[in-house]
Amino acid sequence: MLAADGSARSAYAGYSHWYEAEELARLRKKASEAEGFFRRTGITFNVYGETEASERLIPFDIVPRILSGREWSRLTKGIEQRVRAINAFLHDIYHRQEIVRAGRVPQSLIENNEAFEPKMIGVSPPGGVYTHIVGVDLVRTGPDEFYVLEDNARTPSGVSYMLENRETMLQMFPELFGAIKVQSVQDYPLRLRRSLAACAPPATSGKPRVAVLTPGIHNSAYYEHSFLADHMGAELVEGHDLRVDNGRIAMRTTRGYTPIDVLYRRVDDNFLDPLNFRPDSYLGVPGIMDIYRAGGITIANAPGTGIADDKAIYSYMPEIVEFYTGEKPILKNVPTHRCSDPESLAYVLDNLSELVVKEVHGSGGYGMLVGPAASKEELETFRAKLQAKPGNYIAQPTLALSTVPILSEAGLAPRHVDLRPFVLVSPDRIDITPGGLTRVALKEGSLVVNSSQGGGTKDTWVLEE
């Protein structure tokens, strides 16, 4: 928010002027009202592995994170380039594997990857789109320096919080939006439905029918599943609501079974089809993969896209972007040590206290080590894990992440943040919502922003140019 001399950066100038005229007591009252709003609305998430208080409210901070139109324009160019490359990579590895033949990505990294789905080999999704919805996690380390922390190409979550955060801010501070021109995010559900409908299979007749497949009310992101279905005007279904009917996937209704064209699934690959994956799954639809391979339905995101989430694959993203676009990456990767490489492993073990170590298939802030904040016992425990299964981990330097202000008891205080913009992909366009979800580490000095690890969220403003 502030430059080195204490003056407000240009993006924050309007907000800073407004804040200086506000009373802290009023802002604290507004923060309390926001918490009450989220609680009444039921915006919660579940924490697995805990016996008490498993359902929690995600903390919301009322100070927005603000980006200028110029900053956002540069970011969108880099995000679009990266998403195009990911989609091309997924098509390639399930077809000719040209990138492997060219020696740019090791064959073992594909073949031995648990997220690689052999049943997708030779399958081309309707419209050629594998990643219909993508979340790209970004961190900032300088005025014009953004890094991609990870790619979420499987089932990225959090967009409902982006929308509810904006709705809450609009209700509490309408005068701010009158004075500061902020780009809207509220039409995301309609854009999502339009993008999904554009990916309907050839078998579609008339207006494409879209449904959201949820594992059910006990899933940590169930609120989001129901929110998106409701705001898209789509049906929210569970596996037992669907069946194979005359070569299509049909949904149970009060008038019998009706075919659906696009299934936005929030169920992991392994649980999607008990006939093709885990036979003990009650969450999916028996035979849906056979209908999908025959072109009878679009599954968003496509099965097998999880390999693009893999953090070992992430370490090759600069090569992947250049291979498929012919351009240097606009957005940088965080320098990454692959622990499967003996030399890299030796370096990581020697410098464990200075690095961040992550599981290649990890998410949610679980299974990671932040070296500078770890105890000696935690370091030694992780050292043993690395030595036992080095291929399960990558390591990265601890970045000097940027901070944005939160409203603390004493007023504004700096906290570390990341940003997850949401990207919609259809056959003829890539649509990036202006803003995204800013996640904030509410604990002073913490670098972990995940809600499951005590982080919160805030509204993200992209100013009109």
Number of helices: 14
Shape: globular
Radius of gyration over alpha carbons?
22 Å
Give the N-terminus to C-terminus distance in angstroms: 18 Å
Mean pLDDT across every amino acid position? 91
Sheet/helix structural class: alpha+beta
**Number of separate domains:** 2
List how many beta strands DSSP finds.
Answer: 23
Organism: Tropicimonas omnivorans
InterPro entries: ATP-dep_Glu-Cys_Ligase-2, CP_ATPgrasp_2, UCP005522
Domain Circularly permuted ATP-grasp type: 64-441
Protein name: Circularly permuted type 2 ATP-grasp protein
Question: What does this entry look like structurally?
Answer:
This protein is α+β, with helices and mostly antiparallel strands and 465 residues long. It folds into 2 domains: 10-201 and 297-334 and 399-462, no CATH class; 337-397, Dna Ligase, domain 1. Residues 48-53 have low confidence and may be disordered. The relative contact order is 0.17. A 5-stranded mixed sheet has the order 3-23-22-19-18. It has a 5-stranded mixed sheet with strand order 13-5-4-20-21. The longest helix is centred in the N-terminal third of the chain and has 25 residues, at 69-93. The chain has 14 helices and 23 strands. β9 (248-253) and β10 (256-259) form a beta hairpin.
